[in-house]
Structure formats: structure tokens, C-alpha cells
Amino acid sequence: MKRRLIRFIEERADIGPLRNWIRQKTVPQHKYTVWYYFGGLALFLVVVQIVTGILLAFYYSPTPSSANESVRFIMEKVNYGWLIRSIHFWNANFLIAVVLVHMFSTYFTKAYRKPREAMWIIGALTLALILAFAFTGYLLPWTTLSYFATKIGVNTPRVLPIIGGYLSRVLMGGSDVGAATLHRMFTLHTVVLPLLTLTLIILHVFLGQVFGSSVPISQSSYDRHTRFFPDHLLKDAAVWTVGLAVLLTFATVFPANLGSKVNPLQPAPAGTKPMWYFLFMYQSLRIYSRAVAMGSITLGALVWLAIPILDRKSAKGEKSTLFTLFGIAVLVYLIAMTVFGDISMKIH
Amino acid sequence: MASTRRQFLNRILAGGITAITVYVIYPILRFFDPPSVTPDEQSRIFVATAEEMNLNSAKFFRLLDRAAVLVRLPNGNYRSLSAKCTDLGCTVSFRPVGDYFHCNCHGSEFSISGRVLRGPAERPLEEYDVSVEGDKIYVSAPAKTV
Questions:
Q1: What number of other Cβ atoms are within 10 A of residue A193's Cβ?
Q2: What CA dihedral angle connects B138, B139, B141 and B146, to 10 degrees?
Q3: How far apart are CA B124 and CA B139, in angstroms?
Q4: How far, in Å, CA of A43 to CA of A236, rounded?
Q5: What is the ipTM of this complex?
Q6: Which residues, in sequence order, are bridge partners of residue A224?
Q7: Domain extents for chain B?
Q8: Which of B55, B54, B52, B84 lies closest to B69, judged by CA?
């Protein structure tokens, strides 16, 4: 059957170059090889998120009067609806965590250095889009918590000069969070962001095939490789299987709940806070003035994007301790602000 | 140095593409910007009857597209304000003990007249006009606020 299928294709298209490329593709082996798996795992989780998202869209209704009810319907009436929504919820969290690990492992192994600068920039932009996915998706169940968290989120850019007010209005679709906001978030979440994200992911993966896996500077003297197909791919598949098992465990043991439908006239409940991946931003906004916090975060994001251009030592294959320390400082800041934000909200 | 015919044409082409791009993108960016709500007769609305409003109590209601609050003060007078925190837009809660508004999102506090008592909010809550006609209480917002 398999041979007949291959013969069928070969009679119609020259797949020789593709076959050679698959045979010749190798993956470097060294003590940091384990970090390679996170890129593949992120890609796998993206696929899971797309599949579960498409399934949810079959029942979801993006209006203030029906959004919360439609999610409740999915969870209580639709066959396996609770499981699909739960997987979508947990997978969003795992995806962000895995992409963060992928990004920081790329940073600390200096895999962004020449010739992979574009891969780094595209990857960082993809993370921004994934966070935008999380932000736009959070409002969709139309719960009290998601409503007020979104209010905070869409009003925060106001402090940015020139574009702040415009950005905030565009996100809200009016002067306050309401039906227009819900519709805009749904459109962004299901049409605009998927198109942009898939384009960037395809580019990122394509460049990954062109350049191959980066070898850390300290490991460049080792010249051990393993075949991508089938050896590395099988290990990738094993990681995906473990990832899926962990995901299913969380989705079934801790199923996603649905908060009460929002009444916009009710005061914001105590403890209104964003999801964990936005806590560092939230806490920064609480500690520093709005303008300082937003300005610093925007500037920090631009510097982060430009790291491959700024780190000239790595580009020459030399150790760049300064950038390693910078990365550690960024990581410590993110973790500290996240933990601090969570604790301070509990005390508050 | 004089440019060649090819360089000249390339510049014309680049300029043309840039102009077309701006020509296409500008209306799209403007399209995303929602039109502002113009005030109409709905900017004056019936909120409550005097019977509903006990002394030192508050009623939250919607004035066009935003949350607002009507408070009956201990002296029997009425006051109406925007219930939208001027910090990041959360709906504030009324604290009858102490007569002030508190925002649960970042802890801003406002006096009963809307003045900022505690940050991070910097601007006061907008005040609306209250009119009592017999038993009925109406609130209207000035044109600039809606």
C-alpha cells in the first residue's frame, strides 16, 4: 500500500530532492540538545489549540446576551464539550509556558546569533501574537473576571503617546468594553491572529530548515549528529505524547470552570487580576507610574527584539557574558514580578 | 553623481509603491477607529423613584454606553457620577460607611463628589446632573461627556 502510494506520487512529481533532503537532515548532539524539543512541542501545542478552537467555534456565539450561555452550553450539553474547552484552556497556558522556555533557551544558548537573526525576531513576534491570542480569548466567555481584566487591559495602552488612545479605542470598538469589544476580540481571536500567527510560524519553521539547528558556542567543537528522520522525529513524537498526556491530565483532573456572567453595572470584584502571563505587566503598573511602566515595557520589548543585532560578540562566535547577565536579569524580573503580583493580590 | 536611468526608475517605482501602500493602509487604520457616540435624547434618563433610594444608598445604572451611579446622601440630596474609575475603567463600588467609592482593580478611592482620595487614579469621576420631578429622579450627562 505504502509502496503503491509512493509510486503513485513519483509518477506524477519528482520527489527525489525532498527524499534526499529528509535523508540528509541531521540534528546536532551535545549536552544542550534537550532544549531543541521545546520548539517541536510548541508547534504540537499550536496544532492542538487550532483543532480545539475550531471545534469550540461551532457552538460559540459572540454577543453579550449569548456568549456566556453558549460556553455553558458547550460545557454542559455538548458531547465532550467540557473536555474540548478544558483542553483549549489548559493548552493556552502550556503553550505560553513552552514558548517562553523555547525563547529563553534560545536566548541563553545564543541561538539568535548570525545567521539566525530573522528566526529570533519572527519567534519573538510569534510570542507576542500568542499573548494577543490569550488576551483576546479571555473575554470570550463574558464572565465578570474576564470583563474587568479586559477593561484593565484595553485601557492600559492609553498612556502611550500618540497611538495610545487610538489603540485603546480600536480594541474596545467604542468608549467602553461592550458588545463591540466582544465582537472585535472574537474577530481578532478567530480570523486576524490565526492568519498572522500561522504565517510567522511557517516562516520560522522554514528558516529553521534552511539554517538547521544552532549549536551553542561552547559546544561548537563537538561534531556529533543524529539523523532527523526517523531518530530525532521519534524522540520529538515521544515528547509530544508526554505533553498530550500532561495536558489531558490537567484538563480532566482540573477542568476549566466558567465564571458567572458579567453584569457591567456591578462593581469590579475584589481580586480582579490578569492571568499569570500578564501578572508581571500588571504588577509593574501597580508599582510604577503608568507612563514609566508602559514606556519601560515597550522599550524593553524593542531591545529584546533587537538582541541579535546588539550582541555583536556572539555573532563572531565569542562568549558574551554581558548579554547572558541581561537575560538573567530579565528572567528574574519577570519571575519576581509575577510572584509578587500574585502574592500582593492575595493580600489585597 | 548623476543617477542612471535604471536608478531613477527604481526610485520612482519605490516612491509609487510607498504612496500606494499609505493610500491603502490609511483608510483601513481609520476604519478600525470607532465613531464617537453623539448625545441624543437618551442622555437624560429615568433612574429611580424616591422610594427606591434609601438614605446613604447607591444605585448603579447605564447612561448610554457607560456605568453610572446615583447616590442618595445622608442629608437626602442626590448626586450622580460616572461609575467608571478614571484609572483603567473598572466599575467602582460604593462604600456607605465613610461615603466614598472604591475601585477593586487597583485600589483607587474617590469622595462622594468624585474627587480623588487615593491613587493611582489622577482624575475625578465625572459628575452628572440630577433632576427630581415629583417622585421620579432623572440623570442627564452634559454633551461633552457622552
A1: 18
A2: -100
A3: 18
A4: 11
A5: 0.74
A6: A29
A7: 1-33, 41-145
A8: B84
The dihedrals phi and psi of A34, each to the nearest 5 degrees, come to: -55, -30
The pLDDT confidence band at residue B146, using thresholds 50, 70 and 90, is very low
Contact A175 B103 (CB under 8 A): no
Entry pTM: 0.87
Beta strands in chain B (DSSP E): 44-49, 57-63, 66-72, 78-82, 93-95, 100-102, 109-111, 116-118, 127-133, 136-140
Asked: is B41-145 a CATH 2.102.10.10 domain? The reply is yes
Closest CA to B65 of B94, B96, B34, B87: B34
**Is B66 close to A176, i.e. CB distance below 8 A?**
yes
Residue type, A302: L
Q: Convert the pLDDT of each residue in A120-156 to its tens digit.
A: 999 999 999 999 999 999 999 999 989 988 988 898 8
Residue B79: strand pairing partners: B71
Chain A residues in contact with B105 by the CB 8 A cut-off are 148, 151-152, 268, 272
Q: With CB atoms and an 8 Å threshold, state whether B62 touches A174.
A: no
Could you tell me which CATH class the domain A34-217+227-261+270-347 is placed in? mainly alpha
